[in-house]
Amino acid sequence: MMIWEAFLVILVIYTAWASPFEFGFLRKPGGPLSILDNIVNGFFAIDIVLTFFVTYLDRTTCLLVDDRKQIAWKYATTWLAFDVISTIPSEVALKVMPKPLSYGLFNMLRLLRLRRLEKDRNVNYIWVQCAKLICCHFPLNLPWSTPDWKWFLQVTLFAVHCAGCFFYLLAADYRDPKMTWIGASMEDFHHKSLWVRYVTSIYWSITTLTSVGYGDLHAVNTREMIFDIVYMLFNLGLTSYLIGNLVVLGTSKTRRFGDVVLVWSAWVFLDVGLWRDKTIFTQITFNTENMLARGRMELPLTLCFATLRGDHLLLNHLLKRGLDPNESNNNGRTALHIAASKGHESCVVLLLDFGANPNLKDSVGSVPLWEAILGKHEPVIRLLLGNGAKISLGDVGQYACLAAEQNNLELLKEIDHCGGDVTLPKTNGPTTTALHVAVCEGNVEVVKCLLECGADARKPDEYGWTPQDLAEQQGHEDIIALFKSLTEDRRSIYVAGSQDQPNGSRFLDKFKNKPKMLPAYAARQVDGSMWWLSHPRRHRTNGFHDSLFGIMSTAHKDSDQTARFPVKETASAEKRYASTRVTVSCPEKGDITGKVVLLPETFEELLHIGVKKYGFLPSKILSKSSGARIDDIVLIRDDEHLVFAGDNITSSCVK
Question: What region holds the KHA domain (predicted)?
Fold first, then answer.
């Protein structure tokens, strides 16, 4: 198709030259020009047929229309008539047209073919669009000329050619040949050869255009004078346009050079406001270039974006390019959070293979395992558990409270099944447990499930309300009865144990279900804060002694030995707990000497101290003296020096 269009352009150029020539110098068809014209007309007739199969662009919808009926209607209502008229042979037109209309005038209608070049975006326009289209599409191949110089030369030559043809037409049609510009110096110019007449006309046209007439040729009659006036006015406009473009052409290189100098000056000298902060500006530039080199532009090509779409191919491509699998968005959510919540198992496998941490928390305390549990994505849950995911590293108290608030017993059991302690209070906000929430909701099944998991009905929140108090205050009779039945079961166990021992009632009186209070000296000031202010949770009761196994095992001890030492053992245990102090430090945060704190009850609370003191969750706890890793709270001795460390700290670094 492009070859055909290029071939038609050549035919259009021939038409643009031949039509003014035949209009000025020929009176009837004949010779090689007539044969060549008919051949050109044949090619354009073929193009008329092909146009019915060419799509066009609808300017309203900006869509290509390929419906043949619409194409035919569009062409028939626009340019079909003009194309057919310009394709009619000159011999047929000469017989059909009235006699006063000459042969050359009909050929001028073929200049309508120039519109075929209007869709060429490489073509520009000047005074006459057609002339400029022809000249610009096929520039002269002069070795000394630039494209702009060639364009100016071609426009000038085309204007000279058209003016020469019009000049000769005025002289040939005048009633007195001697009273014309060519007859005044060449009386028998009608008998001269066509070449001599064309060259003379071009000579007169170009001397008039350049305003360097030598006096040998000049306008004689009124028609020639009027045409000369119009031609000279056109010459003024054309010359001004050419000179203006030549000036712009000459200064364009200087202007481009100035722009280059400004660009390089801004890069070398920087802006005035950034001159003093050159180091910071250089760092910003380096970081920006580094991000661009890794493809981290404003485009949404991030791990979170690929995971949100579930596109594991794009995710694999981004991970292979070196993106951090643990990168997070503004809410602290990583790609693993999103993949777990959406259930994209393939994305979860990819992220874990590239080293994604399955225990990272977002800004609200959610871990990927909790996201998978909420979405009920069992394959993802099994996959995360198999790769070391622990729901206990998240805010399990918040998860349990949410399940209790939604009366979702299955969700609560799933949390317990995955290793979460549903009896823990929330870490963010009021220290409310799931049992408090379940009592407020009045859900007996959830309350029963929590009690089976070890929840304490007499454990108060930060306002002093216990679940049992809430049940009585809100009038939940079923829950009150459940609490009473639990209390009666425990009392019956106590009575059964006391019947076997004569002094058992005296001993069992020490094991009432009441929380143990720390002695007064335990509330000493540590690091400028009081124990009850710095410790996030109340001290829990000794669960073993209050449990069924603890009561039964204690009841079977020797009665005399039991009667002598219960108070002493309890007091010594409280004293030992209150006096257990450890020193914690974090070399990664610049703290080498350490701080003295009271040892909490659980290992999770010890990790929470690291978060509170140093602002990050340690991945391991090492002993300062031995360098060994500590995984259980019972292994820590009094006055032990503990080191909170991350993954990049080894045992040899803390000794």
Answer: 581-655
Confidence of residue 523 (pLDDT cuts 50, 70, 90): very low
Give the pairing of strands 591-598 and 63-65: unpaired
The SS3 call for residue 584 is: strand
Residue with more model confidence, 619 or 275: 619
Cβ–Cβ under 8 Å, residues 600 and 633: yes
CA 55, 60, 63, 67 dihedral sign is negative
CA-to-CA distance for 29 and 172, rounded, in angstroms?
17
Closest CA to 446 of 487, 475, 477, 408: 408
Q: Which residue, 378, 370, 357, is CA-closest to 401?
A: 370
**Residue range(s) defining the domain that contains residue 335:** 277-394
257 lies in the same domain as 311: no
Contacts 24+ apart (CB under 8 A), 287-294: 294/321, 294/322, 294/323
Question: What's the CA dihedral at 650, 384, 634, 582 to 10 degrees?
Answer: 50
Helices (H) and strands (E) in the chain, counts: 30, 9
Tens digits of residue pLDDT in 27-81: 776 778 778 888 888 888 888 888 888 888 888 888 888 888 998 898 888 888 8
pLDDT per position as a tens digit, 594-629: 888 888 888 888 888 888 888 778 888 888 888 888
Helix (H) or strand (E) holding 80: helix 80-87
**C-alpha distance from residue 302 to each of 290, 314, 319, 367 (Å):** 15, 9, 10, 20
Provide the CATH number for the domain around residue 298.
Answer: 1.25.40.20
- Ranking 322-331, 386-395, 644-653 by mean pLDDT, the lowest is 644-653
Q: Which residues pair with 646 in a beta bridge?
A: none
Q: Do 404 and 351 fall within a single domain? A: no
User: Looking at per-residue confidence, does 313 or 300 come out higher?
Assistant: 313
**DSSP structure class, residue 55:** -
> Are 217 and 185 a contacting pair, CB within 8 Å?
yes
d(CA 113, CA 79): 10
Domain boundary among 471, 490, 509: 490
11: which 2 tokens?
């035919």
What predicted TM-score, i.e. pTM, was given to this entire model? Answer: 0.35
- Give the whole-angstrom CA distance, residue 208 versus residue 235: 9
Nearest in space to 475 (alpha carbons), one of 451, 508, 442: 442
Residues 255 and 367 in one domain: no
Burial 341-357, CB ≥16 within 10 A → b, else e: bbbbbebbbbbbebebb
Say if residue 268's pLDDT is above 60: no
